[in-house]
Design brief:
CATH topology of one domain: Rossmann fold
Shape: globular
Bound molecules: adenosine-5'-triphosphate
CATH superfamily of one domain: P-loop containing nucleotide triphosphate hydrolases
Number of helices: 8
InterPro entries: AAA+_ATPase (IPR003593), ABC_transporter-like_ATP-bd (IPR003439), P-loop_NTPase (IPR027417)
Pfam families: ABC_tran
Distance between the termini: 38 Å
Strand content: 15-25%
Order of helices and strands: EEEHEEEHHHEHEHEEHH
Organism: Methanobrevibacter olleyae
Radius of gyration: 18 Å
Helix content: 25-40%
Keywords: ATP-binding, Nucleotide-binding
Protein name: ABC transporter ATP-binding protein
CATH architecture of one domain: 3-Layer(aba) Sandwich
Largest sheet: 6 strands, mixed
Length: 241
């Protein structure tokens, strides 16, 4: 079976500092995989390697069985970085259109998809507003719409719900589940435990190592704790010793 995402003994050094150490993981199509870990654990480094923005020092990473970096699969990936990559002097509509054209989406398809996505992020009535006039949470919502405009098969979201209000966060997750049902693989980093619990599987990262990996329920059982948050703390402290 073709894996959506696979890393094999992935390593990354910044100078002498080991940010990733022999990290292997697999994510299936139609799976939501949560990457959890304390600040500096290595989550963004993994994501940047998967998106072809950083080269690993050792090991390999694959998207849909293609070794990255690889231009051939760039349109299969939807990447939402922590810092929004929007043109602040352009409107929401112009930003979405820009990303759509970048991925070669036809004009007649853009309109329908833009409407679907702007309704999903609840910004349809704001589509002619300039980005610099939006709040931080609104910019995140536009960024997510831009990430999804080309119907990517693998979606990589680095803390997509920071600054997004609780009601909208729930609607984000409903949409992620719809995409998952369509066979899309989603890799998501989050510091919110209620969101981690919505993932099919979680990988806990600390000091560049995958220290635990399982369904949220089984992680709690493995750790012998009452909550995912306590399981996360227990695994992280074990790794710090
Ligand atoms: N360009 C860089 N040069 C040197 N060190 C770096 C660089 N980028 C990241 N690091 C270090 O590598 C480690 C992993 O960073 P990374 O951004 O992957 O962590 P993270 O898990 O995404 O953290 P956060 O939850 O804060 O976003 C950190 O210790 C960070 O300081």
């Amino acid at each position: 079976m073709v894996c959506a995402v696979r890393t094999v003994l992935l390593g990354k050094k910044y100078g002498d500092f080991k940010a990733l150490d022999n990290l292997s993981l697999e994510i299936n199509k139609g799976e939501i995989y949560g990457l959890l870990g304390p600040n500096g654990a290595g989550k963004t480094t993994i994501i940047k390697i998967l998106c072809g923005l950083l080269n690993p020092t050792s090991g390999e990473a694959y998207i849909l069985d293609n070794k990255v970096p690889n231009k051939k699969i760039s349109s299969d990936i939807g990447y939402m970085p922590q810092e929004t990559a929007l043109y602040s002097g352009l409107t929401i509509h112009q930003n979405i259109e820009f990303y759509a054209k970048l991925f070669g989406i036809k004009n007649n398809e853009i309109k329908e998809k833009e409407m679907e996505l702007l309704n999903f992020v609840d910004l349809y009535d704001w589509r002619n507003e300039i980005i610099e006039n939006l709040s931080g949470g609104m910019k995140h919502r536009v960024s997510l719409a831009c990430t999804l405009i080309h119907n990517p098969k693998v979606i990589i979201l680095d803390e997509p719900t920071v600054g997004v209000d609780p009601e909208l966060r729930i609607s984000f997750w409903n949409y992620f589940n719809k995409l998952k049902d369509e066979g899309v693989a989603i890799l998501i980093t989050t510091h919110y435990m209620d969101e981690a619990e919505r993932c099919d599987r979680i990988g806990l990262i600390n000091h560049g190592h995958l220290i635990a990996e399982n369904t949220p329920k089984n992680l709690i059982i493995e750790a012998g704790t009452d909550s995912l948050e306590d399981a996360f703390l227990k695994f992280s402290r074990m790794c710090d010793r």
